[in-house]
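Per-record layout

source: Mycobacterium tuberculosis
name: Transmembrane protein
length: 69
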Amino acid sequence: MLPFDGGHIAVAVFERIRNMVRSARGKVAAAPVNYLKLLPATYVVLVLVVGYMLLTVTADLVNPIRLFQ
């Protein structure tokens, strides 16, 4: 799911900023971020998005919006 929600870009930006700060402090670049540690956060976002979708579809089926009446 990460390629579709911008996760790879967010991690790349985080790594770049982290390495710039480390470079300014005179330290070497750190190891890459482990993408597997982001899976719990990805699952939470997925559950929220799917839950919101199910809620709105159910609301539309139970009480549809009527335009131009």
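summary: Residues 2-62 form one domain. The CA atoms of residues 13 and 19 lie 10 Å apart.
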